[in-house]
């Protein structure tokens, strides 16, 4: 359900892999009875009633049901733990001109990427908390 890499793609304003995340959240937040029905029907053939909620903008994420919010929140925490440093450490390094300039160009680019990823993840934490 989550594609070849097993990851969801988040942007500043919305989830870019919204269909995958929406389906995954629906399945993982189902009761056992709902899941049995889902399997018997080979998934959802017509999801028109949930069409509006499938667009996972930041606003829509903040309105998810509590179990889905908790699942996302816990997943984001696990993802953040997989990094070697926290958001503050990245910000401190970006603000320390002397230390930043000692990094190679590649290390500087990686720092910017990590920092951006962590900011998006922290934003998601706030939306689903």
From TrEMBL:
One of its GO terms (molecular function) is methyltransferase activity. It comes from the Eukaryota. GO terms for cellular component: nucleus. Its main location: nucleus. The keyword Ligase does not apply. The keyword Zinc does not apply. It holds the Pfam family Rubis-subs-bind. GO terms for biological process: methylation. It is found in: Nucleus. Residues 4-121 form the Rubisco LSMT substrate-binding domain. Signal peptide: none annotated. Keywords: Methyltransferase, Nucleus, S-adenosyl-L-methionine, Transferase. This is N-lysine methyltransferase SETD6. It comes from Lophotis ruficrista. The lineage of its organism: Eukaryota, Metazoa, Chordata, Craniata, Vertebrata. The gene is Setd6.
